[in-house]
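WARN retry 2 of 3 for item q-0093 after timeout on previous attempt; input resubmitted unchanged.
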Amino acid sequence: MASPSTPKYTIDYMPSDVPGPKARALVERDGRVLAPMGRVYPLVIDHASGCEVWDVDGHRYLDMCAGIAVLAAGHSHPRLVQAAQDQLTRFTHMAGTDFYNEPMIKAAEKLVSLMPGGQDWQVFFTNSGTEAIEACIKLARYATGRQNIIGFYGGFHGRTYGSLTLTASKPRQRIGFFPMLPGSFHAFYPNPYRPPLGSPADRVAETCLSFIEQTLFTTTCPPEEVAAIVIEPIQGEGGYVVPAPGFMQGLRELCDRHGILLICDEVQSGVGRTGKMWGFEHEGIMPDIVASAKGLGGGLPIGAMIAREELARKWQPGSHGNTYGGNGLICAVTHELLCLVEEELTANAAAVGPQLKAALEDLQSRFPQIGSVRGRGLMIGVELIDPASGEGDHDLADAVMEEAFRKGLLVLTCGHSTIRFCPPLTLTVEQAEEAVERFALALEACVAK
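OK item q-0093 returned
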């Protein structure tokens, strides 16, 4: 990739009145009829293609968000559009928990075929990631007869009550919603950039595993009462944190010793995003249950709980269900999306992602405000800091996100002070170069103030 200090592109700056008049009018209308949702900047999309988005006033943006890692194949991929159109002429919905339909079966078959070998898997389709996590919690408790669930500080698993109880990334997500689900506990995620518990950087994995075994298990959470441990192979909303080497393998061994199920939340890290189908594949482990969503539907709402067959078969009819899971229209698109993931998208993420990461790392020589660049494939986080103290700079991250919007680049923050790059998996090297250049302009404008 070209050096970001020698721009390859003529950057088309946004006009000073962004958002434009049409966008401002729609934002005002939105505020009158929609409940507050905490929008981060006033993008009002009109149409999009691939990694490019145009707003209602005709301004073009390069999309490094992909609808929060949802649009794995990019905006309006022709194969997904065709799959949806074809299915619409046949049927859209027939309640997959009560009846059978081929699109649901094909999507499940394809999903199972993309799971690692060595064991058999079964799928339960949901409508979202949070519902997939709820299904994981219910199955773990039902199959083991145990009550307790352990999550991790910094984790994000959704906003319904079971998933929200495990979520521990931002206080505002939980304020006003107590009490939470009984029997839930949290451990420390092995962040090698900011080691918890005062751990030396080279012993993060050991320290965090020891906390579970020597503190949780010996005080408030006896292991024989733990049904499952739920973990993101890369923390998403917590800051795009890659766990310290060896931790995931140690966690798998800990679970095996105590008869605890290991649940991997792959809602944000799965479906090819990290350069492998699943984030846990980088760690050389096998979970018992996997939660998937986001990229799974190519932009349409779907989630899935994928469990070892021997666990899934313990559910009796009626133990769990939903109305829209297995929707024919969405499953037809999901099947096509998974074919794309297998054929080209995972490989592209594995090829372009490291080049994007390296170019962002190159910016560290120009900007001491970049404390860490981390990630795998096209799941990359840039943590911004105060160079004097080394502490994360939340205000700077927010300012850079907003300034990037005004430079024609769509990014989002995560964690305390991290800018995430989770573009469509169709991202080209040229688009990655453009993204880094626009990001550098935004960062330059913010640190100069």
